[in-house]
Amino acid sequence: MKRITKLAAGAFTGAAVVLAPLALTGTANAETGTVITLEPTGAQRAAAAKVIHCTIVAHNPHYSHHADAKNRSMVNVVGTVKCDHKVARISIRVGLYKNGHLYKQSGVKSNTGKSSISQNAARRCVKRQKYTGVAVASVVAPPGYTPPTASGRSVSKTVYISACKKGG
User: Is 135 exposed, middle or buried (0-12, 13-18, 19+ CB in 10 A)?
Assistant: First the structure.
């Protein structure tokens, strides 16, 4: 029986989420993400319930155009989890790394009974630096699915931001 397509490098402890140290090689990239597979068991399997796939993606860091409109120079990274069916609970935390060191960590964002979630981390942009995003997430399966809880991690591409302005 398939459990988790890719093993998580981040750890969840109750409601708190801890970002693991950044490995620049990563477990997945922004194009493919990390996939968690939840399979029906027992009565759910007999009822021909569908396998649930959830994809965790750390999108590439970028200069924030929303912040530019407010006359603030910020770099932003967004993490998302998208499942093809509703799950019991999804939690996510996002980290923004500058030159391989944690620069900003978001709070934990969670929802229940949904199929997707997103979270971001943003901090003042420093030109001529390399930025990388990491998204760590946990998914709690609906009743009758295994594993009951699964987690995963996605690492974006490392992006060089030469100037902290539009088109930079």
Answer: buried
Q: Determine the CATH number of domain 11-155.
A: 2.60.40
Strands 149-155 and 129-140: antiparallel
Handedness of CA 38, 44, 45, 49 (dihedral sign): negative
| pLDDT for the residue 30 | 52
CB 155 within 8 A of CB 9: no
pTM: 0.78
CB 106 within 8 A of CB 122: no
107 vs 19, which has greater pLDDT? Answer: 107
What is the tens place of the pLDDT at every residue in 73-107?
A: 899 999 999 999 999 999 999 999 999 999 999 99
What is the rounded CA–CA span in Å between residue 26 and residue 78? 16
Which residue ranges make up each domain of the chain?
11-155
